[in-house]
Structures are given as C-alpha cells and as structure tokens.
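Recap quiz, item 2
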Amino acid sequence: MLEIRDLHAVVEGEDLKILKGVNLIVNKGEVHAIMGPNGSGKSTLSKVVSGHPEYEVTEGIILFEGEDITEMDADERAHLGLFLAFQYPVEVPGITNKTLLREAYNTIARANKREELDPLEFEDYLVSKLDIIEMKDEFLNRSINTGFSGGEKKKNEIFQMAVLNPRLSFLDETDSGLDIDALKVVSNGVNKISSPENAIVMITHYQRLLNYIKPDLVHVMMNGKIVKSGDISLAEELEANGYDQMQKKLA
Amino acid sequence: MSEETKALESLIGEDYKYGFTTDVEYEDFPKGISKDIIRELSSRKDEPEWMLEFRLKSYHAWLEMEEPEWFNATYTKPDFENLLYYSAPKNRPSLDSLDDVDPNIRETYNKLGIPLEEQKMLAGVAVDAVFDSVSIFTSFKEKLAEAGVIFCSISEAIKEYPHLVKKYLGSVIPARDNYYAALNSAVFSDGSFCYIPKNTICPMELSTYFRINNMESGQFERTLIIAEEGASVSYLEGCTAPMYDENQLHAAVVELVAMDHAEIKYSTIQNWYSGDENGKGGIYNFVTKRGICKGNHSKISWTQLETGSAVTLKYPSVILQGDHSIGEFYSVAVTTKKQQADTGTKMIHLGKNTRSTIISKGISAGESNNSYRGEVKIGKKAIGSKNYSVCDSMLIGQTCGAHTFPYISSENASSSVEHEATTSRVGEEQIFYLMQRGISEQNAISMIINGFVKDVLKELPLEFAVEANKLLDVKLEGSVG
C-alpha cells in the first residue's frame, strides 16, 4: 500500500536535513508503530508523507498503491485515501465540525467518482459514527477544535478518521496528553476502524499505547532514519532499556 | 513569501470586476465650490430658501474648518476646486415603469447583478436607485404610502415634507460636526429620506444602490431616517463603482433618529473601486454616519461589509440618549493591495441602563493597512450601562498592517465595559489541516475567512447576506498559484 524509498527531506528553504534516508513498507491490513526519541524525525515523516508544504523532499520517493505521490498536493493525497491524525489539531473558528466533514467527505467522494451525500443523508451517516469515540451529537455543531480540551481534540481526529474512512492513517502522537480513560476511548475507536482493508501507522514515544492497539510491526527511528524494525518485543525492549542504550548497541 | 501566502494574496487581490463606465449624457455644471456654485446648485434643484440658507451656513462653517489628519492613513488630499458638485443624467424623467429607464443605466445595473427587476419586487424590496446625484427611479412607493411610510429622495422630501426635513436634518450630525460633514451639508446632491410613523413596522426592507459614474464628480449623498415611537425599519445600502484613475471623493452623511421603542437597522455593503496594484486611483470614502436613540427602549444597529475604496474613514456611531436604549455595530472591513481603512464606531452612553455591542473583524492582505478605531463613552448619568467590544484582526501575508485604537471612558462605577482584541494570521497550519482532509486550497482559505466573519455576516438581512457572500467570494476567487 505504502512504499517509502530512501526518503530525504529538509525544512523548505533551509539546509538542515531532518529525514536522512527512510525506508518503509506498509501493507494492507497492517498496523505499524514508529517509536523514537524527540527530534528523531517521526512526526516529520508523517507530515512529509501527507504533503505538508513546509518540507521539501530532496531525495527518494513515496509510492501509494504504486503511484508516485512525492510531489502531490496534500488534498490530492487525501483523495487517494491518506489521513493524518494531527499531533496538535488546528483550531478553525466559525466553521463547524459538521461543515468541515461534509465538505471533506463530498470532495473526496467527487474525486473518486463516488456518490455524494446530501445534508440529511450525511447527518445520519455522521451520527452513526459518533459511538466510535463516545461523543454526543452537539460535538458536530461546534467550531473545529475551537475551545476543545486536549482530549477532545484527539478524539475529534479519530472521529474524522472514522467518517472519512481512509485507506492509510498516520496517527501522530495521538496518545500524548490523554488521561487513561481518554486513551482507552481513543484506542477503542482506532481498533474499531482498523480492518483488513486499511492500514495504520502510529507514531508514539511510549509503549503504553501499544497495550491498547497491537502493532504487527514496530520501527525505531533515530536521527532521521529507521534504525531497527521488529515485533512488539522491540517496543518492550525499548520500554525496559530506553533509547540511549539501543543507540549504543547499534553503534 | 511562501506559495500559500502568494495564493492567498492572489485570491484576495482579485481585480475589480465592476470597472466599466456607462455612456450617459450629463448636464453642464461648472467645477469648483463657492457661494455662487451653491446658489446655482440649489436653484437647479428648485429648493426653498431655507434649504439654501442651510447650505450657505454649512459652507461658511466648512471654510473655517481644517481638513482632519488624525487618522491612520496617508493620501493626496482632494482638490476641492477641481470637483464637480452637481451632475444628473440629462433626460431626467418622471418614471412610471422600468421600461422608461435609460437602457444604458439598466444595462449597468444588470452588469452589477443588481436585481432591480421583478425578482426584487417579488422579494418585497423597494428600490430607490441613485444614479449619480439624482434619483431616477423609485418603486413601491404606493405600497409604502399605504402603510404610511415615506420613502423618497431627499430632494423630494425637502419639497414635500419640509417640516420633517427642517426638524431633523443636521439634528444628529450638525454641519460643524466635522470637515466632511460640513462639506456635505453645503453641497449634498441627493440621497434618501425615510419616515416611519408611530407603531408602524415598515412592510419591506428598504434599499438604495449608489453608483459613482461621473468622472471627477464629487458624490455627496445625504440620508435621513426617522423612526417614530414603536416604529421599525431595516435599511440596506450597497454600492459598487466603475474603475477610474482619478481619485473620487465620497463624503456622505447618514442620520438616524429612533424614538421610544423604535428600531432602525442599517446595513451596508461597500465595494467601490479601491485603486490599482500601485495604489493609483480608487475612491476616498469619508462618510459620517450617526444615529441617536432618542427614545427609551429604542435600538439602532449598524452592520457593514467594507471591501472597497482606496481610503475609508468611517465611524458609524450611536448616541444612546434614551434609557434602556441599545446600540450595535457589526463590521467586516477587508483591505487588499494598497487600501487603507480606518474604521470603527462610537457608542456614547447617556441614558440609564443602556447597552452597546461592538463586533469588528478586520482582514488585511497585500500592502494594505486596516485600523479599528472605536470609542466607548459612558456618561455620569448612564448608570447600569454595559458595553461589550470584540475587535479581531486577521493578517494575510507579511506586508500588511492591522491596528486597534480603542478609546474607553466611564464616568460612573455601576457600568461595565468589556473589550477583547485578537490578531491572527491565516496560518499555513490551518490551510494544511483542511487540505489534509481533502479540501482544495481555495476552499480552505474561503472557509477560514468565512468562519472569521461569520459573527458579523449573520447580522445582515437575509437578502443581503447572499450578496455579502457573493462579494466575499468575488474578492476571494481566483487562481490558486
């Protein structure tokens, strides 16, 4: 589904390299976890894959379903089924969640020559997804993330993921800032969305998220590269010994 | 400058769509201003002696006044000797139907998309179209007359209802109020007059479309609206102008009077030519608008969407004289290219338990400068009064400016004034967030801006809200680079 080959990226207009040759393959039905210390490039990877204009790819290629998306605009990537749950969801005052999601859903439907939903149909569809993150329907009429608590913002990301039904989702530190109850709700939501037809890449500092969402593969990212991949035991090893020790071992 | 910023600027800086002129013959009238010119103007308009006196007194006041310079804008001062103070389409007829209107003029209105035709009539809107200085068409007068509402040109009112005009003209904005009000009082060409009698709810929205079309013609509209006890009216004003290089001065005066339990809602969409990329040309919009809540429990509400003009100096204000009266000001001011806007309001609380609300939204792009200037004054006797103000600015790009100048004074301890101000930049993060959800860049920007101005646009009457959205779209549409 996703194939990243030797990806190098810099912040637009600057020389500093953040990604220094990332290789990653994600197949349909898989759940991956990318772990790593602060500044290792995990979040940047998710932004580069989803087309953030702040970053420039200097080398390498990103293939999605075999198609080269390296130079594609963010909205076109979204039309192909790529989703990013933001680490820091953005506030957009004056536009409701419902308006955003209807516009997004129908734009993606149009791009894929699928039928659009009229406002009434869409309302029903939206309400049917609320259970996934245990939200009340008043949530739909609030301005996007405006005045939301940290936990609500993260839940909103997973709600949007449920509504837009992407093929591949990057969850950028979705667990950070969540209390244990909220973490459970969010994790349950992700597990309900996860299916053999889609794929999920979680980016996290901590192993605790992986207690709730079981990854098929765990990658460790350091200094702009994936330095080690393995199964869940790799996460356990990290939790026990820390990143420093792993770095030393690798060196 | 990033690609997003450039895209934003190209969207916002959309060229003026209504830049065309209409070929209509004009009566000859000498340029410049003097006692003789004012006499000539007054005599051509067939005005009574008292009106001429009003004009001459105002002219003398004007001569003694200094052109103001305190605002946050710089421009070449108008050459008052080179302005034309009177113009009117030549074949000025008394019209019975739209068919009698000069086809060129009708064509102009059609190009502007002004629904002067059946649609508007069906929608129940009376239209008093001011084409240059003289009213050429007034509709629905009879229906209004049935309700007892007087809606006509100010010229007509001077002749037909002199007692009302004498009583109220200059009562809210005296000639000496400010430089441009004095000038307007001396040479005003035409405008609208509206009188809603006691306990009457005006049966339809009243609207006037202004259009500046005569090169070098000064445009000095005069509007007077009076709502008697228990009366209510909603008045809509909208304007666009053709593209010219010559700076054109527009110095209108609008006076509103609301008696006990009366309510006046005055809404404006202003989209005059704002000049080219280099700041050449464009309209000077120096307007004095003020209402007085004379009666107890009266209410005056100003709503404006200001997108045009090279320089805008405008402060629609409310004097809250009656106890329990309410003043409101809702404003969206958009500046692009080299536009300069210094706009806001004054809320003068005199009566007890008076309330005022100010919501101002400024959007600046290009090299423009957008200032909010607002005064809230609570007098000694205005006990238990409240003001709530919100002034939000949105910046697009790095070369524009947004400023807030609040002046607040309260002379009694039982009143409260609340002022909030924010400045934000249309962020790349916001645009990326929406694009990541599949929304195109252009729609993303449009959504962010619409969200920002929503609190104000919802105050516009429904028919106008549609036009307002259309105007914002015109301002915003364009290629995404």
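The first strand of chain B starts at residue 126 and ends at 131.
Residues 89-94, 117-125, 130-137, 209-218 of chain B have pLDDT under 50 and may be disordered.
End of item.
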